[in-house]
Amino acid sequence: ARAPQGAPQGLASEPEACPEDLEALSLPAVSEGFDEVRFEWQPQESCEKLLREYRLQCKAAQRVEDIQPSAWSASKLAEWHKALQEWKGKQKEWKQVLEQLSEWKKEGAKDDEVGKEGSERPTDVDPDELDVFGVQDINDIGSGEPLYASFANEDWALLERRFELHLLVHAFRRDLNDPERPMFLERHLAFYYSRYFKKSLDLEQFGCGANGELLG
């Protein structure tokens, strides 16, 4: 038996064509009625390795049409939505604090909690100079100011997509529970995104024309 020339060597690329019945792919064996099976071009072990890699590559290229979000992935998504709303609520509260301080300044208030004269911030912490990886509490980097205090709508949108994509790749692996298919192809991203989050992946919202641009 001869291994086909140009057979895929790994799972990084997508095969040009795959058979519908992957389980039917096999090397000839004496048990099938052959008097003798000789591997003249490559050893049997090499042929089996090439066939196994090809099957895995074809399997990874197939879209799992019937996959459904598990209770685990649904619970993680619910936890995320709850945290996101809490963060947005804290950001709103912080903006209200700054607005109140601004009003006190205009009125010439001399309250110790306002800080030194001319300051509109109740903390000496400068978010622009902060090492975000050293922050212990994202909800309070100093005097109640959240790390995300200056987030605009586009920042929240990017954060949300980042989490969704993170959850998607882990949920896919966990829900499918197939060690031979731990990941999916980029061209299937929109399908799985829609299946898990019940909405379309809008690339134009982020000025992207392809999945690779968004993921990059």
For this entry, give a set of tags:
5 helices; 216 residues; mainly alpha; elongated; 0% strand
Tell me briefly what this model is.
With 216 residues, the chain is mainly alpha-helical. It has 5 helices and no strands. The longest helix has 37 residues, at 71-107.
Tell me what you see in this structure.
The chain is mainly α and 216 residues long. The protein is built from 5 helices and no strands. The chain has helices spanning 44-61, 71-107, 153-176, 189-197, 211-215. Helix 2 runs antiparallel to helix 3 (153-176) and helix 3 (153-176) crosses helix 4. It is elongated and about 100 Å long. The protein starts with 43 loop residues before the first helix and ends with a helix.
Structural class comes to mainly alpha
Number of helices: 5
Sketch the major β-sheet: none
Query: Average pLDDT value?
Result: 83
Instruction: Provide the succession of SSEs.
Output: HHHHH
Oligomer: single chain
How are the elements arranged and paired?
Layout: H1 44-61, H2 71-107, H3 153-176, H4 189-197, H5 211-215
